[in-house]
Design brief:
Hypothetical upf0131 protein ytfp; globular; Gamma-glutamylcyclotransferase; AIG2-like_dom; GGCT-like
Amino acid sequence: MSLPFFVYGTLRPGEHNHDRFLRGRTAAEEPARLPGAVLHDGPGFPYAVPGEGEVRGALVTAAPGGYGQLLSVLDDLEEYAGPGHPLNLYDREARDVVRDRDGATVRAWVYFAAPGTALGPRIADGDWLTRTRSGPRSPRP
């Protein structure tokens, strides 16, 4: 299933992992939001979890012919080894995301914190960028 990706933290445009992992690999990046989720701070990067709220981010579409490579790169970065794998840092799930420009609902891959992950404080407005503007940045390898 070739879905776009919903990114909400260090992969968003302007953040430190965006150029490192997405530059040259995308055909489109546009503001979007994920209903039915909340955002938590982590050790230099955020965690989304299902819940009563909304997370702000970007909908990223792979460049033509580059879907498999982008999927592999993002799975590696997010430490996703497969459905329910005990070593997952994140679990990848297909969810409905709302595109800001037209309100359309788009099915996309979302990386949620895997069960048992230690979450930091909730980011009340669901937007990692508002948190990082005033808080410390710790680059994630």
